[in-house]
Specification:
Elements: H1 5-8, H2 14-28, H3 36-43, H4 47-53, H5 57-77, H6 90-103, H7 105-111, H8 128-142, H9 151-172, H10 178-193, H11 196-199
Helix pairs in contact: 2-3, 2-5, 2-7, 6-7, 6-10, 7-9, 8-9, 9-10
Length: 202
């Protein structure tokens, strides 16, 4: 029987309880088969309460994805990168991405479900991962480790490249060949964003 999430902690915000319930159901029962009524029941709220926060199920999906992105960025911020030169930070960051996805493989599938692919346009949440990538690239340029580039565009491209690789590795290939993808991503990122004179030192 579904756990009533609100009853687990009265202080849990109703919106957050709905997101938590949706995430649990989407990753166990599947996005397509889960109904808003089931999300409401698991969150311990009325169906009408869900609609106060989210008009459609794809909106709930985007909120779940956005919440996980925040977790993802938080995990990356816990990495000890201060003693590592900027041009060598791609490896620990990418290894950290793979480690987190290996612990939470069900979310890899959910992150690959795009609202527009089921007929609903994006709400365009600010992406915590893209924002973190912009800061990473900007800091590397300021430190003289990365070449000059349009950091907004580069962050979008890097996000898509890593996201599609994680989906391929963990969803399509069931987590096999992780090291192969890590090495290829690290090499691609270092050669793409690094200054030529820095790359020659690698």
């Amino acid at each position: 029987m579904a756990t009533d999430i609100i009853k687990k902690g009265a202080k849990i915000d109703k919106r957050e309880a709905i997101i938590e319930a949706a995430r649990a159901l989407f990753t166990t029962e599947g996005y397509e088969t889960t109904t808003i009524a089931e999300v409401a029941r698991k969150a311990g709220v009325a169906v009408g309460t869900v609609y106060l926060y989210f008009k459609t199920k794809p909106e709930i999906l985007e909120a779940v994805q956005h919440s996980w992105e925040h977790e993802f960025v938080g995990a990356m911020q816990e990495l000890d990168l201060q003693g590592i030169p900027h041009h060598l930070r791609a490896r620990p960051i990418i290894e950290g991405c793979f480690a987190m996805c290996a612990r939470d493989t069900d979310m890899v599938q959910i992150m690959g479900v795009l609202p527009q692919s089921i007929g609903v346009p994006h709400k365009h949440f600010p992406s915590p991962i893209r924002e973190a990538l912009v800061r990473f690239l900007s800091d590397g340029i300021a430190a003289g480790s990365f070449r000059e580039m349009d950091v907004e565009a580069a962050a979008t491209i890097a996000f898509g490249m890593v996201e599609s690789t994680l989906h391929q590795c963990f969803y399509v290939e069931d987590g096999t060949n992780q090291q192969r993808y890590i090495e290829t991503l690290v090499d691609a990122m270092q050669r793409w964003i690094g200054r030529p004179e820095v790359i020659r030192e690698l």
